[in-house]
Design a protein that fits this description.
- The chain has 13 helices and 12 strands.
- The chain has helices at about 10-20, 40-50, 60, 70, 90-95, 95-105, 125-130, 140-150, 185-200, 225-235, 250-260, 290-295, 310-325, and strands at about 5-10, 30, 80-85, 110-115, 135-140, 150, 175-180, 200-205, 215-220, 235-240, 260-265, 280-285.
- The protein has a 6-stranded parallel beta sheet with strand order 2-1-3-4-5-6.
- It is globular and about 60 Å long.
- The two termini are about 15 Å apart.
Length: about 325
């Protein structure tokens, strides 16, 4: 049976960037806009802001359900239609009511959830009700798969195919960081000071409210992903600092492997990841234990990456699982 995939629920350029390989597939559509009509979409997000994500007036959100892009779509009844959600954003827009209505209106549609964040931040009754509407759930967190019965699938990433990536670019930075601050802000400040003390050239970019932290660049808006790639190409090593209670593979890990960069991380689980190479990846517990010579030594890592992170393989895995159930 022919299958069509509609991928949604991702937020921001970075998340969409991970999925770009899917544009090569004829049977896959990236559906980033929750609401297609611009005027209705503007009104929806205006009401979303005024009501605190509709928490103050839940009934208002129901007026927008008929305008949801995937609710209005005409599906091929002769094929199997699969909506693949990423949990980075779907929980905010797709509550259990609209999902239930979607399944009633389009009984030929199957709903799949791909968890790119750990259940630590999603284990609530509200999210559990949403998950119960799913036909199947995949997760990049092996511990969550064992605990909740999810299917395991590693983090996906689409390699930048721009011609001449990194070509002729001299290493201008020893250690590069890009990410949000929040619970990591103070730790990043200590890390930056340690870099200065050790003579390490650090380039830290933090998304969040501006702080008086000398040397760290703060951004009120997300850094364009093309700029991230440019800064990454100039760096010798990538820094990864995990949010509290998070131990999933992250985009920083993927970038290190795909673009052959060294990685300095405080995620102890990294030693269990498929492309872990101790000569290129260093795991630290305390800042004072870091071997700064590893960060500064210029070398060309080679993880032997051959496109294994591509989301194309996730689609193929889901298709294989459906076929196995039909046997």
């Amino acid at each position: 049976m022919k299958r069509y995939f509609y991928v949604t629920g991702y937020v921001g350029e970075g998340a969409r960037r991970m999925l770009l390989d899917l544009e090569k597939m004829e049977n896959v559509e990236l559906a980033g806009q929750v609401i297609g009509n611009k005027a209705v979409r503007f009104l929806y997000y205006r009401m979303d802001d005024l009501t605190g994500h509709f928490q103050k007036a839940r009934f208002l959100k129901r007026f927008f359900y008929p305008f949801f892009t995937l609710y209005r779509k005409v599906y091929n009844r002769e094929a199997e239609n699969i909506i693949l959600f990423l949990n980075s954003g779907f929980c905010r827009e797709w509550d259990e009511t609209v999902l239930h209505r979607l399944k009633i209106k389009h009984p030929e549609v199957r709903l799949i959830l791909y968890m790119v964040d750990p259940m630590t931040g999603f284990d609530s009754e509200e999210h559990r009700r949403i998950m119960r509407e799913m036909d199947s759930i995949y997760s990049i967190n092996k511990a969550d798969c064992e605990k909740y019965g999810f299917h395991y699938y590693p983090l996906v990433y689409s390699e930048d195919s721009s011609e001449g990536y990194g070509e002729g670019i001299a290493k201008a930075t020893d250690l590069y960081y890009l990410g949000s601050g929040s619970d990591r802000t103070e730790y990043l400040s200590k890390m930056y000071k340690a870099c200065q003390k050790s003579g390490v050239k650090a380039d830290f970019h933090v998304l969040g409210e501006r702080q008086e932290k000398e040397g760290i660049v703060y951004h009120q808006e997300a850094v364009p992903y093309s700029e991230n790639i440019r800064l990454l190409a100039r760096a010798n090593c990538i820094l990864e600092i995990m949010h509290k209670d998070f131990d999933n593979p992250t985009q920083r890990y993927s970038e290190a492997v795909v673009y052959n960069k060294k990685l300095l991380t405080n995620n102890k689980r990294t030693a269990d990841f498929d492309f872990y190479r101790p000569e290129y990846i260093r795991i630290f517990d305390k800042i004072e234990d870091i071997d700064w010579s590893f960060v500064q030594k210029e070398e060309e890592p080679n993880y032997g990456y051959q496109g294994e992170f591509s989301p194309i393989y996730l689609i193929r895995k889901i298709e294989e699982d459906f076929e196995a159930r039909e046997r």
